[in-house]
Amino acid sequence: DGGITQSPKYLFRKEGQNVTLSCEQNLNHDAMYWYRQDPGQGLRLIYYSQIVNDFQKGDIAEGYSVSREKKESFPLTVTSAQKNPTAFYLCASRDTSEQYFGPGTRLTVT
Amino acid sequence: DQQVKKNSPSLSVQEGRISILNCDYTNSMFDYFLWYKKYPAEGPTFLISISSIKDKNEDGRFTVFLNKSAKHLSLHIVPSQPGDSAVYFCAASPNAGNNRKLIWGLGTSLAVNP
Predict the structure, then answer these.
(1) In DSSP terms, which residues pair with A57 in a beta bridge?
(2) CB spacing of B42 vs A31 below 8 angstroms
(3) pLDDT tens profile A6-45
(4) CB A66 within 8 A of CB A54
């Protein structure tokens, strides 16, 4: 069945390490998005990609990087330059109007 | 600048009654509005949407109302059920060609008590 998968569900890293969060979709959607959610906050856009081999910075791209080499995959790397990396990360893809979300990855950096 | 604002951080209603969640927005270029529901530690799920050419859209127990002159969006859930307890986000899409970046509100926590 179609959907968006994010792995792992929980991720723990030491400060100073880069970490890559996986996002895969089999919905054949062109557009994909990465958000982060912090307690009591809305969703803030990190990066988005409208099509393969193209991506754009969102509102809070500093300290993050992405790639879009395949339509199905949009991995997010949280680099050591990200000052507050501990958060709940959500990946989404879009058809004509609605965005469909994966289950999220809770990243904890200590 | 928060372009989409929720009107209250939380709401508590009795099972069977109506739940009304509200959002205000500031950008008159928004032309498409959506409501999402989110359980803890899960991704949001799409509930219902409305285009700016309409003022009401209904889907089962969920109805979204759009008041363009007041820049106000609301979601009515009737009758409310305990399973509706979640955080609800409104989102808006600006009229920016094919971009469809969503601008998200901060979320309202709904508790439906049995």
Answers:
(1) A47
(2) no
(3) 989 999 999 999 999 999 999 999 999 999 998 877 899 9
(4) no
SS3 (DSSP) at B91? strand
| Residue of B64, B82, B80 lying closest to B72 (CA atoms) | B64
* Cross-chain residue pair A99–B46, CB shorter than 8 Å: yes
Q: What is the pLDDT of residue B2?
A: 63
pLDDT (mean) for B3-21: 88
Is B41 an interface residue toward A (CB < 8 Å)? yes
In B66-85, the residues whose Cβ lies within 8 Å of chain A are: none
Confidence band, pLDDT 50/70/90 cuts, at residue B28:
confident
pLDDT single digits (tens) B49-105? 999 999 999 999 999 999 999 999 999 999 999 999 999 999 998 765 455 678 888
In terms of residues, how long is chain B?
Answer: 114
A1-6 own/partner pairs: CB under 8 Å, 24+ apart = A2/A26, A2/A27, A3/A27, A3/A100, A3/A102, A4/A91, A4/A92, A4/A93, A4/A100, A4/A101, A4/A102, A4/A103, A4/B43, A5/A102, A5/A103, A6/A89, A6/A90, A6/A91, A6/A102, A6/A103, A6/A104, A6/A105, A6/B43
B2 Cα to chain A: minimum distance (Å): 10
Mutate to test the interface with B, among A23, A97, A105, A108 (most CBs of B within 10 A): A97
